[in-house]
Amino acid sequence: MIQIRDLVMQLSGGGHTLTVLDGISLEIPDKQTVAIVGPSGSGKSTLLGLIAGLDRPTAGSIQIDGIEITDMPEAELARFRREKIGYVFQSFHLIPTLTAVENVAVPLELSGVADAVERAEALLDAVGLGDRRGHYPVQLSGGEQQRVAVARAFACRPPILLADEPTGNLDSVNGRHVMELLLALHRDAGTTLILVTHEPQLASRMGRIISLRDGRMASDDVSRGDPMSQEQLR
Ligand code: ADP
Ligand code: MG
């Protein structure tokens, strides 16, 4: 469960202060699928980054499973993030000097997993890239790179997966492939899935749609069906 209370994010520079998030409060239960939508600059990436503990808010509280993360010391936060949260970036953010399998193995090795490489290979198999293990990111298409990034984000089986416009740099076929992969992780592992997207078609696959405008919540559509039952209806 993620509990966000009165979250404020202000950035100052050049003598004035920009309020990026202006009092966000929301609760996201375990296993929910959430789309965060809204115009460019409305604060979507900032909100996702704060939930991931990648940044610190100006004010307010974020609790994950009852643990406050906004004032957690950096080393403890890094460990907490590794256990609880997987993060997928729009632009993949793979390490260019590591092969596909080495990229996926990084979080496993950081967590002290003994058979990190074997586990990474199995994860790559699961995202359909078993034959690309030894390829470097530059040798992979955008869609393939994003599948590697999803495998890496999910390597430690975090209960929460965050994705910031994960299909934003992909064509529609590859975008759909990545989206199916994210939904499969939710379905198979019960992962909470929170994704930022511009695409109404992707947002409609999620169980809840939160819309931001000027750093505030403009709407919160929780009345949507679970995507699993929606799929069964098709
Ligand atoms: P979104 O993801 O919805 O497009 P962001 O969360 O990236 O919006 O940004 C919200 C606002 O904060 C924008 O006006 C953006 O220009 C500003 N912003 C975000 N990060 C920074 C930063 N590091 N420095 C200055 N302004 C920033
Ligand atoms: Mg953004």
TrEMBL record:
Record-level GO cellular component terms: membrane protein complex; plasma membrane
Q: Which CDD domains match?
A: ABC_MJ0796_LolCDE_FtsE
Q: Does the keyword Membrane apply?
A: no
Per its UniProt entry, which superkingdom is the organism in? Answer: Bacteria
Q: Where are the transmembrane segments?
A: none
Family annotation (PROSITE patterns): ABC_TRANSPORTER_1 (PS00211), ABC_TRANSPORTER_2 (PS50893)
* Xref: InterPro entries: AAA+_ATPase, ABC_transporter-like_ATP-bd, ABC_transporter-like_CS, ABC_transpr_LolD-like, MacB-like_ATP-bd, P-loop_NTPase
Pfam families attached to this UniProt entry: ABC_tran
Where is each ABC transporter domain found?
Answer: 2-233
Could you list this entry's UniProt keywords, alphabetically sorted: ATP-binding, Nucleotide-binding, Transport
Q: Which SUPFAM superfamilies match?
A: P-loop containing nucleoside triphosphate hydrolases
The protein's GO terms of the molecular function aspect are: ATP binding; ATP hydrolysis activity; transmembrane transporter activity
Q: Which family does it belong to?
A: Belongs to the ABC transporter superfamily. Macrolide exporter (TC 3.A.1.122) family.
Checking PANTHER family in the record gives: IMPORT ATP-BINDING PROTEIN (PTHR24220), TRANSPORTER, PUTATIVE-RELATED (PTHR24220:SF659)
In its UniProt entry, what is this protein called?
ABC transporter ATP-binding protein YbbA
Q: Which organism is it from?
A: Nitrospira tepida
